[in-house]
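In response to the reviewer comment on reproducibility (Comment 2.3), we provide here a single inverse folding case reported in full, input and output, so that an independent group could reproduce the run without further information from us. The C-alpha cells appear first.
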C-alpha cells in the first residue's frame, strides 16, 4: 500500500468523520451550518494550493453532482449518489488537468461492515487517488467484497466528478500552437489567423502560480497590435514574456496562416517568387496550392509538384524535367510554410 497516496484521503476522511460525529452527537439543529464548515475545512486538504474557493451550483437538477468548489488549481466536486440502502454524500478533488487528488466520503449510512466500507477501506480508496481517466470496477479498481453496489457508486461518482471538473478539450479549431517557458513552467498558446491578421490568442495550458492579469492582457494586446511585440505586464514579466515567446513560436513553426486556415510560404522560382498554401491534418499534408507565381514556362510543375508532395506527405520529391527552378521554388515554398 502506498502510504504517500493515502495521506490526503486518510486525513480528509478522518477529519470528516470527527466533525460528522460531533454533529450527530449534539449539533443536529445546526447540521447544515456544520456541513458547510466541514467542507470549508476540507478543501485545502483535498486540493492543496487551490487558494480561495467559489461554489458553483450544478444547474442540471437530474445530475447526482450538486456543484463544485472552484479554486485556482482545480475543483472539489460535491455529489450525492445512491448506494445500496441510502445515498452516499461525497467530495472529489480534481486538478485542472483532470488528475483526481482526493476522495472524501462525507456521509454513508449503508450496511455496516459492507457498504459502509466504501468510507473507510483504504485499499479501495487509494485506487481512486492519483487517477486520470475512467475507472472501472473489475478492470483497474478492485471492489470491496460484499459491497459491489456501494463500490460502483463511489467509482462512478469519481468518474463523473473528473469529467465535470475537467471536461475533455474541444478539438482544435485549426489554430497555430506554440510553447515557451513562463515563470513556473511551459506556456502553450493557440493563435488563430485571418490572412496575415492575428484574430485570436488563447493560453491553452500553463503552470503559473501568480500570473497577475498577464494571461488575459497579453493575448488581448497581441491581437490589438497584430504582433507579439507588445509590452509585458508589470509584476508578471516572466509570464508575459512566456506568452509572447509562445506566440512567436507558433508563428515561426507554422509560417503565417492563409485566409482559409492553410499555411503559406514563399520561395524563389525561375522568374520570381512562388507562393503556396499548404493545408494540414495533424502531421499529414492534405493539400498544396500555388497561389501566385511569375513563371513563364513552368511546364506541368505547378500541378505535378503539389500533387507529388501530397502523395509523399513530404516536400522531398523529384523535380519535373525541364522545370527545375519552378519545381524547386514550389518545394522550397512548401518547406517555408511548414517550417521544414
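Designed residues, in position order:
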Amino acid at each position: 500500500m502506498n502510504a504517500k497516496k493515502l495521506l490526503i484521503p486518510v486525513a480528509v476522511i478522518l477529519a470528516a468523520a470527527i466533525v460528522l460525529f460531533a454533529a450527530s452527537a449534539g449539533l443536529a439543529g445546526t447540521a447544515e451550518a456544520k456541513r458547510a464548515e466541514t467542507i470549508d475545512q476540507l478543501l485545502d486538504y483535498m486540493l492543496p494550493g487551490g487558494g480561495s474557493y467559489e461554489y458553483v451550483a450544478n444547474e442540471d437538477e437530474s445530475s447526482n453532482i450538486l456543484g463544485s468548489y472552484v479554486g485556482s488549481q482545480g475543483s472539489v466536486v460535491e455529489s450525492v449518489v445512491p448506494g445500496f440502502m441510502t445515498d452516499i454524500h461525497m467530495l472529489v478533488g480534481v486538478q485542472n488537468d483532470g488528475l483526481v487528488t482526493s476522495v472524501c466520503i462525507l456521509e454513508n449510512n449503508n450496511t455496516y461492515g459492507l457498504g459502509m466500507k466504501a468510507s473507510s477501506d483504504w485499499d479501495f480508496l487509494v485506487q481512486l487517488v492519483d487517477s486520470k481517466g475512467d475507472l472501472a470496477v473489475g478492470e483497474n479498481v478492485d471492489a470491496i467484497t460484499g459491497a459491489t453496489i456501494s463500490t460502483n457508486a463511489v467509482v462512478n461518482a469519481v468518474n463523473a466528478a473528473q469529467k465535470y471538473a475537467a471536461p475533455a478539450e474541444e478539438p482544435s479549431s485549426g489554430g497555430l500552437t506554440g510553447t515557451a517557458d513562463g515563470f513556473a513552467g511551459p506556456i502553450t498558446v493557440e493563435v488563430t489567423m485571418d490572412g496575415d491578421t492575428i484574430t485570436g490568442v488563447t493560453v491553452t495550458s500553463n503552470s503559473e502560480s501568480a500570473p497577475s492579469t498577464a494571461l488575459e492582457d497579453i493575448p488581448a494586446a497581441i491581437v490589438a497590435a497584430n504582433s507579439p511585440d507588445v509590452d509585458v505586464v508589470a509584476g508578471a514579466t516572466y509570464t508575459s514574456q512566456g506568452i509572447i515567446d509562445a506566440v512567436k513560436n507558433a508563428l515561426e513553426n507554422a509560417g503565417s496562416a492563409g485566409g482559409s486556415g492553410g499555411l503559406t510560404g514563399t520561395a524563389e522560382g525561375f522568374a520570381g517568387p512562388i507562393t503556396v498554401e499548404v493545408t494540414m491534418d495533424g502531421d499529414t499534408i492534405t493539400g498544396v496550392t500555388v497561389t501566385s507565381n511569375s513563371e513563364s514556362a513552368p511546364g506541368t510543375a505547378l500541378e505535378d509538384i503539389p500533387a507529388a508532395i501530397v502523395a509523399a506527405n513530404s516536400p522531398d520529391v523529384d523535380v519535373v524535367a525541364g522545370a527545375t527552378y519552378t519545381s524547386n521554388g514550389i518545394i522550397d515554398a512548401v518547406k517555408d510554410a511548414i517550417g521544414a
